[in-house]
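Re: that chain you flagged

S.,

Sorry for the slow reply, it's been a week of failed gels. I finally had a moment to sit down with the sequence you sent. For the record, here it is as I used it:
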Amino acid sequence: MRRYRHSPLVALTLAAVMATAGIASAAPLTFTTTPLGTGVSIAEVAPEISGVWVAWEWTPGPSGSDIVVHNLANAGSSFTIGAHDFHDQSNPDVSLGRIAYQSNQNGNWDIYVYDTRFSAPNKYTTSGEDEVSPRIDGNLLVWHNQTTDRLWYYDMRRGIREEVPGATDIVNFDVDNGCIVWTEDGAFPVKKFSPAESKAGSVLVWNAGSLSSSMQVHGNLAAIGRPEGGGDAIVIDLVTYVRTNLMPSSAMKESDPAAFHNGAVWCAGDDLSYKVLGEAASMVTATTDIESDPSIFGRRIVYERRAGLSLPDVWMAWAKPEVARTAGTDRYSTAVVVSREYFSAAETDVAVLCTGANFPDALSAAPLARILGGPLLLTKPGSVPAEVIAELDRLKVKEVIIIGSAAAVSGAVESQLTGAGYNVKRLAGANRYETSVKIAEFMYGALETDYKPDTAFFARGDNFPDALAVGPVAAGALAPVLLVRPTSLPAEVAQAVDAMNFTMGFVIGDTNSVSAEVLNRLNTIARANGGEPQSVYRWAGANRYETAVTVVENAMKYYRWIDLDSLGVATGTNFPDALGGGAALGYYGSAVLLTNGTILSPATGAFLDRHQYEIGRVDVFGGTNTVSDAVKNAVGAKIR
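Prediction finished late last night. Pasting the structure tokens below so you have them in one place:
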């Protein structure tokens, strides 16, 4: 979140911006810069970037401040919210094609959201009090009631509007992936709250000791400016609460940090620097002008640039986007490497453990792992590999959830884990269909009342591609994946849909995967639970690759359950790599696509072409024997 600005500022004609496609490169990175604003004597401030959209605040004259929105994928395409209406629109934020901002058009500050899908704004506050500085991520909108000095949130999908418990004396705040983070006056603590997890209150992350000047959050990282009053910029791991000073030995003033994945940008004096945590820093800018207030998406950074006493303009810097490969020597070690990349060690972590020898029981586990906040690891049926035990130790796991019966993961595995000091719980049914129900029931019980799912996803249980594709989406929706037979609905699944009162569902795959009869039966149950006449829909393509694309497209466009901050790519011809990778990106709030291992599948390539500016980074799961370097390079050539 930015420092509060309640006065009108900013103006614009936009230039087209093209970034170079590329592959992950070692630090230091080379950044190219270009202006986005007009460069004339009109203040352009508070830039924010998310995917293809950049928004900022400008003041064209006596008519008040407006919000300018620019589409990076469409050269010169921009529009203005509130143009010349003699009211102030300010403090924009951006997520998945929505622009949140504050406006005083009703005589006090209110919160609005402009949806680029419909080219129209909606008002989200009506209290008559001053409500300011909205932050938005996916379906979660957060703002500060300046009159009462409290934080509020609104879940735009579920229609839930509540105060953030324990949030008062607000200094800075932000939201990402369902987690609200803020700093307070007084003792200056850093706190967090996740609406889906608990209404018991906020959690203290760290006592900053002095006033913070800025905060921006991404994933598990909260980037905080000047927390100790001495000009340091830090990031805090929101899982472990470990604090990292971005430049610990530097005497230079550092401020306004912003995080993305495992990297951060910050103001280093009058210039900008970037680093991946644990690596060397790269200079983003090195000019005689003053660069400040950065916002980052992938390796694209928007910021204010000011020459001397002139008014600031909005600029963008970019480096080659990251296309990583996360892989081990086999399916078990690949899941471990994925866990190391995406999960920090924490005392409260729980791990989900599935057999790596077969797929059925694990197909429903990705959303469970998201709710538990832990990785999905694989085991041999008769014993836990040494590298998996080492990863459980690194994570300081206390509880392991085994998925499937003893026929899938033996009692010997359970005894091995219990003997090593882990609490072990097994979720298992008499077959793969009942096991998926047990997982759904466990998820349902773990979620806060208002967030218990009204939606379920359905995929065939005798093959893996469709369920692999929908796993991360279901995780983002906090909804279960229930397995069905291609031509019949298992009785235990039908009973679960009724008992958990699901009123909407999505069948994944064409009629060869799940028949029309199965869909119609599900629709009848959901409708009886209070759903619409058409309550269950089909998401399908001509093959597994097109189906995965359809799932991701629909989940983003219509429901905003996931984003493309990180996009996973895995082979569509085998299941293990996509299991651990899909669970990790489900935890991350992002998606996974499937491809042929030797040639980039046309449907996946076309998706990358359509969304090339919306992808923050790509992670290829599995070694070159599952997804070749030729495919990895083809992916890198398509993103911007």
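What I noticed first: Residues 3-25 have pLDDT under 50 and may be disordered.

Talk soon,
D.
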